[in-house]
Structure formats: C-alpha cells, structure tokens
C-alpha cells in the first residue's frame, strides 16, 4: 500500500518535467497534475482505511499503518485536495498580479507535491528517527514554498522559520540518542520504533526518560507552534501565499501534535508520566495565554488566524497533558474540526488578499458588498473558531472543558477567561472591519470558480459536522485511543 | 404523545422559515416576507395553546431530538415552569411578528430585511428550545445560539456607527455570561456526573457557594442586573424596535427562567443566597429607575426600566428563598408566584411600550424625546397604547403591573412573622426602597408620556407626524388587552389555578370604579353647565404660546436629579459671557448638567484598558527579528535543562 | 588512549571558542572544517577502543561531508556575495558569550550528573556527552549573537557537530539514520545559503541572481 | 347586600362632610391672622358656583384633560370604601387592602400630573414635576407608616386595623403616638398643606397642587376640588380611627350611625383646628429641604418598628 503512494509521487514528479510553452497552459497543467496527485493519495488512504486490517507493517518495520496514522493522513490529504483545487485560481491570480514568475511555477508545484508525499510518509513511519528526518524535510519544503513569492520579507520569514524550527529539532536528536541509549541498555540492541517503545514503556528508567522526553518535546513543540518556540508561525503564515499558509497551519502543525501524542502514548506507561503531564499542561496553558493575549491588537488578518492556530494547538496540548481516554477522543475530533475551520478561514483570507492586495484590516472596505462569499466564509469561520454552537469546535471544546473541570477547577476558570478574551478580540476586529465604508470605488475582483467551490464545500461541511457526528468517525476515534494504549 | 409531535413539528417550522428567507435573499419581495411573518405568527399562537395546555393541566412533554456523542444529547422536557415561560415567549413573539409585518418594511435593503426576518425566526426558536432544554448541554447550545442570533439582529442596522460599538459590547457580555454558565455547569457535572437538571444534594460548603455564584453571575449578566447591566441600554437603542421588544420582553426572561430552574429544581438554596438575590434585586431596581430618570432616549429609558423590573423579579425570588428557609410556605409561594406573574406582566407591558415607542421613533425618525410632543392628537392609537403600557408599568390599580407588585408588597408587609430581628429590619428597608422605586417609576413614566404625547409638538417631524398603519396597532393592542384582562381577573385566575392568596379581588374594584364613573358622569350631565369652549392656555397674558414655553424632559426630572445628586454625581457647569468686562451686561451662556457614568468609568473601562495594555505588551514581543526569536528558544531550553536537572531527582 | 581523547576535547572546545569570536568569514569556514576533522579523529580513536565498525564509517562520512563538501559550498557562494567580514554582535559581546559558554558547561554537567548514573557510563564518556551538549548550546549562542546569516549557518553547523559528538559518546544511532541525517543537513544548508545570499548580499538585482542558482531545476 | 348599604352610607357621608373641613381650616387660619375669613360653608357655595359655570379647555389639551377629573373623583370615592368613617363592616374580599388604598391615591396623582403637563403651560409642567418629586420621596415613608401600623395589629387590612384598634384602645401605647405623628405629617404632605405646598396661592413658585389644576374650570374644577377634599377627609379619618377610635361603631344600627357621625364630625373639627394652627405656625419650606422633613416622619415610623421588634 505504501508503494502505491511512492509510485504516484514519483510519476507525478517526472510528469512535471514536461514543458509547456505559454504560461497559462503550463499553470493549468501543473495544477491539474497536483489535483490528480492529491486525489490519488486521498483514494489510496480511503481504500487503506476500509480494506487493510490495521496495524500492518512495511519495509521491515520502518513503516507501519495504524488507525491513528490513517486518520491524520485522511485530514492531510483532504486539506491538500481542497487547497490544490483552490490554488488553480489563486496561482493564476498571483501570476496576473506579478507576485510569482512563470519560471518559479515549477518549483512551487514540485515542492507542493513533494511536501504532500513527505507528510504522508512521516505519518506512516514507525521509526522515531525516520520520523524526525521526514519532519526536517517538511520544514525545508515548506520554507521553499514560502520563498516562491518574490518579496524580500518572504525570504526573512522563510529564514526565521528555518532557523527556529531546525535549531529546536536538533535538540530532539539529543533526545533520540538518549532514548536509543536507554533501549540499548534495556534490551541489548537499541530500537526507536513506536510500537516496540510502547511495549517497553514501563521498563525505561523514569528520570532519564523524562529528560529524553523533554528534549524530543522541544523539537516537536517548535513544529507544533507551542509557545516558546512558536515565534516563526505568525510571520510565516502572514507572508506565505494563502494556499501555503493553509498547509502550514492545518497539516504541518498536526504533524507536530501527532509526534507529541505518540510520544505521550509511550510516556503514559512510564512511571514518570505524572511529571510529564504537568509539563505538557504548563506548556499548553502558556500557549493559550500568550496566543489569546497577542490577538487583540492584531492589524493583519492572516497573523490573527495564525495566532488562533497557536491557541488551538495549545488547547490540544493541554488536552493531551490531562490524558484521560475521553479527553483524547475529543482532542482527535478537535484536530479534525480545527483543520477544516482553519482551511476555510485561510481560503477566505486568500480571496480578500487578492481583492484588497493587503492583509491589513483597515484596507478592507465594504467587505460584504465586494466579496460576499469570502466575507461570509470569514465571518462563519471566525464564529466557528471561537466555538459557537452549530459548529464542530463547540462540541469538542465543551467536552474537553468538561474533562478539564474534572481535572481541576481553577485551570478551567483560566482557560474559560482566555477563551472569552479570544472571542472579544475576534469580535472587536470583525465588527471594525465589517463596518468600514469604502471611501473610493473598488473594482470587485471576480474570484475564480475554483476558489469559490472549496469555500462553499467547507462552509456546508462545517455546518454538517457541527450538528451531525457520524458513527463511523466515532468508532475510528475510539480504536485510535485504544490503540494508543489509553 | 400527539402534543409533543405537534409542538416540535411547529418548532421545526422556524428554521425552515429562516432557511427560505435566507435562500430567497435578493429576490424576496414584500409579500413574501409578510407571508413568512404571518406564518411565524400562527406558529407562535399554536405553541401558545400547547404551552397553556401543559401549564394548566400539568402534563409533561418529553422529546429526544438526537444523541450527538457520548453523554451529549439534545433532549427536551417541558414541565409547568417551562410551559409557563414558553407561553410568555409565544404570546409576545406572536404580537411582535404581527407588528414587524409592516415595521421591517421601513429599514434597509431587501437582502438585509430578509436576513433580519430569518434571524428573528431563529432567535425565537432558540428561545423556545432554551426554555425546553432538559440537560445543560442543550441549554448551553441554544443559549449560545440565542445570543448569536440576537447579536446579528442588534447589528442589523449598520448605517449608524454606534451600532457597532453596542453590538460589540453586547457580544462580549453574552460571551462572558456563557463563560460563567459553562463554569457552573461543568462544576456541577464533576459532582453529579450527568448533565441533567436533577436535584443535586451532595454539594456543600464553599463548592456549592462557588457553583451558585458563577451561575447567578452568568444569568444576571444576561438578565441585566446592576453591576452587569451596561450592555442593555446600548443594545436596545441600537437594535430595531421589534427586536428590542423581543429582547427585553422575552430574552431577559429566559435568563430569569434559568435562575428559577436552578433555584427550584437543582439546588437546595441556603439563606444567604436569598439575601444576596434580594440585595441585588433591590440595588438594580433602585439604580435602574434612577438612571431611567436621567435618560432622554426613549429606548434607553425603557431599557433601564427593564433593569428595574428585573430587580423586582429578583426581589420576589430572594423573598421566596428567605421565606422557604424560615418555612413559611404560604408566603414563599406568594412571593414566588408574584415574581413569576411579574415576569409575565413585564414581558407584556415592556414589549407593548417598546412596540408603541418603535412606531413613534419610526414616524419621528429620532429617539430623543426632547424633539417629540403633542403626538396624542396626531397618533391617537399609539398614544393610547403607550398610555396603557405606562399605566401598567407604573403599577396603577386595575392593571396587571399593580397585581404583581401588590403580591411582592404583600410578601414584604407580612415579613414581620419572621422572628430574626435583623432579617425583619432588612426586609423593612427593602420595603421602603421598593416603594421608592415604584414611585420613581410612576414619576418617570409621567415624564415619558407627558413629554412625548401631550402638549405642543417640539419639532416639525412631530408636527407633521401621522399614525402608523393598522397592523402596527393590532400587535400592541393584543398586548394591551392582555394587560387589562390579566389585571382585572387576576384573583379569579389564581383561584382557578389553585393558589388561595390574600389578594384583593380587582374585578370587584374595577366594577365599582366603573359604576362610580357612570354615576358621576350622569350627575355632571344633569347638574352642570352643558357647553364648553376652547381658548389660549393661561400664560400670564402672553398671547402666542409656543412649544419652547413647555416643560422639557430634563426640566421635569431636574428636581429628582438634584435630590439624588450623590447617586448621579451630577455636575452642573454654567458658563456665561458678558458684553462688558465688569460682567454686568449678560450676553449669552451655556448651562449643562453632566451625570457621571459610574459603572462605565469605574468598572468596565479600567478592565478593558488593563487587558489592552497586557495584550499590546505581549504582541509587541512577536514583531521582532530572527535573533530575538532564537534568544527566546535559547533561554527556554536553558531553563528546561535547569528544571529537569534540579527538580527531577 | 583516554588522554588522546582529552587532548582532542580541548582542541574541539578551542575551535568552538574561535568560531564564537572570529570575524572574518573565510577563517570561520576553516575553523569549522578543522572542528569536524577533530570530531572524526575522536571517532576513529573510539573505533580503535571499542572496535565498533559504525564509528569508522561515521568518521569517514563526517570528513567527507562536514570537513570538505559543506565548506566548499559555503565558500563558493560567499565569493559571489563579496562579503568579507561579519563584525556586528548583538545581545552578547564575544567575551560575554564565552563567559556564558563556560556557564553552559557547568550547567550541563550539573544537571546531567544525576541522570547518566543510571546508564552506568564511565566518566570519560559522561564528560564527552557533556562537552557535546555544551557545544550545541554554544552553537545556538552564535546564531543569536551574530548579524550575518552566513555566520548563523556556521553556528547551526557547530550545533550539529556538538550533537554528533554527543552521539559518539552516548550511543551511535544505526548508520543508515546517520547518513540520512547528514543528507538532510546538506539540503538544509544549501537552501539556507541560497536564502542567506538574498539577505546578506549587497547586490540589488537579487532575483536574477537567485534564479541562476535554481540550476538544479533547468528550464 | 349588607356591603352595598355600608358603601352607600359611607360615600354619601364622605361627600357631604368633606368640604366642611376644607373651609373650616381656612377659617381657622384667617382667625390666626386676625381677619374674619370666609363662612364655614364657603366650599359648598364654591362647588355650586363652579358646577353652573361653562368648561374652558386649552387649545393644546387632549382627552387626558377631559378624563382626569372623572378618574380623580372615582379613585377617591373607591378609596373611601377602604376607610370606614361610621362603622366597620365585616371584611369583603379585597376591600381594605392598604396597598390598594395607597395606590388608588397614586393613580389619582398620576393622572393629575399628566393633566398638568397636557395644557402645555410652564406652571402645569412645574407643578406636576414637583408633585411627582415630592410623592416619590414621600412614598417610602407612607409605606413604612402603614407597615408599622400593620406590625402593631399584625394585619395589612385597614378594616381589621380599625376593628382591632377599637377593641384594644391604643391611646396609651407609646408606639401609637409615634405612628400618629408620622400619620399627621403624611396628612400634611398628601393634602399639600403649608410646609410642603401652599393650597391657596397662585404664585407659580409656591404652588404644586394648585398648579396642576390651574387649567381647569367649571364642573371639572368642581370635581377636582371635591376629590381633593375627600382625600383630606380620608386621611384625617385614618388618623382619627387609629388614635381615638371610640366613636366608631361595629354594627350598622340607626342610632349607632347617627351617634358615630356626630362624634366623627366633632373629632374631625378638632383635627382641622389643629391642622389650621399647624399651618399658620409654619412658613413654606424650600423644595429641596422637604426631604429632611420626610426623614423626620421616616424616623418616627422606623423607631416604632424597632421599638416593636426589640421589645
């Protein structure tokens, strides 16, 4: 099954080399290639989900496919699929406005498809070190994607992203080495596979394991945007083209959280899990607090959405820290809900960026009249992200808060007040933007159909997910939580 | 079971109507929207009948909508209390629907009108379902939906700039109320293990006090109790009148329903709860009416009066708990039923006042009562309706406002049965403050009615005003009729319901009033001089009497403002300028009265500024270059190594 | 055998101190290649001591990649940028950062002493691990104290050397992983240098220069 | 049936006797100022004269102006049912509730204030504004007085209060004296006597009650004056029945009614003389010094409550 993934990836890359003379056809050709690529991946994942008995192992236990990995790949592939649709219209608009040269198109689409392959394989890899390497590759590829827009500050943003992420990732190598030494000390030859580590979970020496956990956590926290290491995230999201910031916030952050959750699954068996859960809770609260406080004075739409991703990642980390089976069930549901709503938000931000050629709120005038669908997408997205009813985030937020209440009430009060601050920030900004009248006449930018269809699909999807919770998804989440050993 | 199907079939019509309204957004013509409002009107009437049936014959309705996940399921259970409140919502929203058939025609483009219609439908449905909710998840779900839809409604008139500010204020306050409610519900969940509204006795001590306080704060933010009332005047003056009628007439009652539901069925309340609720009720009643006196914007005036009446309802609830703890069950029932009856009455006459003032504002164009006057001759029907509303809110005998205030007065008067002397003194102080509030309310509505409707018009708009179309009269007149009937037949209704209270039989009083009026009229007809003529008002000889000689609203309330100066902290600034420099020949001058906005300046703005300061500081930390980012992660890693090294032995 | 390793420890620490203080770019590259060379020698010595073949392979790999390939790429790009020296310091002067460096060594020693007792290492290996980790931290210091992106990349490479040293003394990861880590490092460095070119270079027509470097993706 | 007889007798007696006391007070004040003063039955002559005059309405006035006299007189007459002057009937559901009695008077005041505003003149506006301010500040005092009364007799029904005051004569109870003092102050305020408001003057600064009925003429003015006098009689009756209840009969016999009516007139004359002397010995207070006067009444009634509670 993994070979199928690999083959499609390589075939698409080779096909990409074929040249088309004039730019219009080449852009469409490259785009339709990436649509084929993403839909193929989606099809393979769905067939894998239905047919294969999980977990199954490949390439002498370096790669494996279990329900958790499939769930995350499902989210990643659907986000990639929608954004490849969206990028057809978006890239054409970028070319018209001269932000991207025809020559760089090839680099853009190559990095785009490579990123998908790398992300999918990182979910499937069983070995922790391999997972680390693929994570590094995602950083490199997304940095390339950020740089494609020929603007100076894009380079600065990409560099910030590269350095902050990879310096922290280096420290997780130290953690890996320590882990490897522990397993070698325990059972003769060291082994870094998730499942073997899970079996030996309780045998590892507790204090050293906490040390190794913290080092690995530093690296994954940088990838997941947890507070002290999150600093690259707002800049990268604001400067990257909207299609890429969708991938950054809905997929790459998930990979970081995936790593932390796998690690926590091992830590859960170890006698030192109590200190580890406290550390995770502290980091989670810190993240939610910093993100909540830095949203209010935001002037840039994409930075606002980036900070809300940081806040949600902090909230998920908090959920993982508490670690009861029920809260993990809802943390997984929350990752799905957050990914969808974030995609909707960035898609509408993309259209608004193309309309006003800037992300700043004060430039967005007469927003409803000029771009009705995008403004409605933004409005519903913001309401969904702050967790109002009829949207999926409300259910998962309420349930996680229920478990937090069972854990400790003062923590609950802090989190509730922070969410109140977030809701206040969103409303202040939204009302100011929606009430701004246009002083001069704007020519309304006719968003391409390929940009509008994913937006509409997402709005309907969010409403459906908010109200109806399919049993298929329930069983999948249940046996994920079971397979992680909670 | 037929009733449950019927009820939820009718409730499902609301979202359908909303959906249709949104789908035909641009193309929707006038008749299309009006047919939707008539549909909503009939559905509300149907729900009214069902709820009356459940309220009187005490049949409980149960309905499981669907199970979302795990312990979360949307399910409903309607008992007498829920049916009573659904009856209030149904009656008021049916009258508002009739009223808004014509009222929404005056505002905004076709699309925004459709949008407001859809949002009103969803708003009414969410209020029904909040009241019918069986577990706290459903309650929270529809509570949030209610605040969301009302937020859009407050925001519907986007032309004015201050709508944005008040909508923002409103949204943040509702979110704060949901946060407190969530805190209370989750704390309850940790103890009782289930989200159902079931009797929880295992609470005790500080935890129980904490849960009660968070729920009380949550509900009182939404109900507009004094320290949290600040959003109410803004939201009501910004939203269109039919929406503010719905909001202040009914939405505030949903918060009261929540509070009663918890006090009656979930908690076993302690004595100090009763005292806190009573004190909060007294404070918000008194301050509500005092602030209403200084208001010259008709909608803000009515909004402050909602705060006053919510205060009275809270007084009733507080008394109920106090009497319950001293186990005087008759007095406890009297004050509880008094509070609930006052909720019903307030819903009726407040929406009547809002609808009629809405017609006035619609015709005149401005909300400032200083520019109205003499409207009773130009808008007789709206005038009469506003008179009915102000008479029943000022609690004058044959009307329903009087009956519920009488019941609470009765409870206060009979409080001498309690043996604890301090409680008696507190209740007597409460009695005098309550009397002061109702007297000030009477003064305020004399001012409001007198300045708006009587004497000479003060602006051209008032001069050329004409009465509104008949539909905008029918709606409020249904409410006025209900006010009178509930007033006069209150004694009979209570007997029929089975509560024997020592209440005066207002039917007898009404009949004797009528009889004596006829007698006196006949006497005057026979004896007195028949003819009458009209001439100039007496102005000590001035021939041309114009409107500037009339008493204005600020003039009318100036004595009260000076008497209650410490409450308002009124500052009178008078600056005169003279022709000569000895200050003897007076040229002109400006005299101003400023009342100090205590709550806004002292509580709300400092908190907002503090949060703003922190968030500025934190967010500036993010707009820096790469080196500082690496410095952040470097310090974090060093700290982490230190901690793991030292702490984890 | 142990005292040879101690000598090389001292040499490695000296190169680290030099990297922190030196201002001219070309000498920075030389010091870096010397440092990787010394680590490779330590690996060979360890190979003779323990006889683990992987150590030898790692030593060869380090010499090939870190001592030769990476400095070559860096010098080639640095020539086009005609940027000679990186003089500006931020947050910490060279003396300050050296002081912090020594503080780092003590800190790591203090917090690691409790932990590594569980893994029953003799003190040489323990000391090697401590030096490895402190060199990583010193590398991070270089990143946030120097102004030019090229010097930051050198700082990053120094961190990578520290980790390699750490892994030599704690437990060598399977060779296949080491190779992949190095490949990944090379990709990262090339991309960073291309970007560094954009930031540090004084030449204005940045884009045309940038595109000439996307020579791998021929048009 | 029995109740209708009581109602008929009581209201008839009130209408007949109340104008007498108004002119009596005027006569007493005249004597204190050394002049002869109007004849005792002056108010009857005035009412008769007014009934024969034509009614003049201001051009700005609306139906409120025409409605208010009738509302006033009916409120007062229904209120008179609550205060038995001659004999105490056995209680009928509803009649006698203290709050209803007070709120009927508030209803009369409410519509009179509206009528004051209706004509659109500054005098009417000033009168109703000051009337509502004074009534707003005095209302808590009135409620506390009646609550104290209720506390003494532990009932809130006026009829029961008077019947129990007959049985256990309160004269020597210290609380009764304090209550009657505050009742006297309320009587002065409600009937707008000198310290609060000057009933005879038409000077715009000093008149509150008069300003509101400035625009009335003819039969309307007659009704307003009559209702004003009835209100005064009712309040005097409450004070009398509480302090010196011995004249009040308990069952409706012919002789007992005649005896109690004579006794009531006698007691009311004494009270009017006291009021007249009280009025003559005071000058009109400034409007914003009035609250201190009401605090005095409040203090008296509150001390009765404390006195009653803590004993």
Explained architecture:
The complex is a heterotetramer of chains A (486), B (649), C (219) and D (311). Chain B has 24 helices and 5 strands. Chain B is mainly α and 649 residues long. A two-stranded antiparallel sheet of chain B has the order 1-2. A two-stranded antiparallel sheet of chain B has the order 4-5. In chain B, helix 2 (30-57) runs antiparallel to helix 3 (80-103), helix 11 packs parallel to helix 15 and helix 12 runs antiparallel to helix 15. The model of chain B has no long low-confidence stretch (mean pLDDT 86). Chain C is an all-alpha fold. Chain C has one domain (2-217). Helix content of chain C is 80%, strand content 0%. The longest helix of chain C has 29 residues, at 53-81. Chain C is globular and about 50 Å long. Helices cover 71% and strands 1% of the residues of chain D. Chain D is an all-alpha fold and 311 residues long. Chains B and D meet through helix 15, helix 16, helix 20, strand 3 and helix 21 of B and strand 1, helix 3, helix 4, helix 5 and helix 9 of D.
Key structural traits:
heterotetramer, A: 486 residues, mainly alpha, two-stranded antiparallel sheet, 19 helices, 2 strands, C: 219 residues, 8 helices, 80% helix, globular, disordered C terminus
Q: If you average the pLDDT of chain D, what whole number results?
A: 85
Outline the biggest β-sheet of chain D: none
C-alpha Rg of chain A (nearest Å): 22 Å
Q: State the low-pLDDT regions of chain A, or none.
A: none
Residue share in helices of chain A?
over 70%
Quaternary organization? heterotetramer
- Tell me what portion of residues of chain A adopts beta-strand conformation: under 5%
Order of helices and strands of chain D: HHEHHHHHHHHH
Q: Which structural class should the secondary elements of chain A be placed in?
A: mainly alpha
Distance between termini of chain A?
28 Å
Task: Please state how the strands of the largest beta sheet of chain A are arranged side by side.
Answer: 1-2
Coarse morphology of chain D: globular
The unreliable regions of chain D are: none
Helix content of chain D: over 70%
Number of strands of chain D: 1
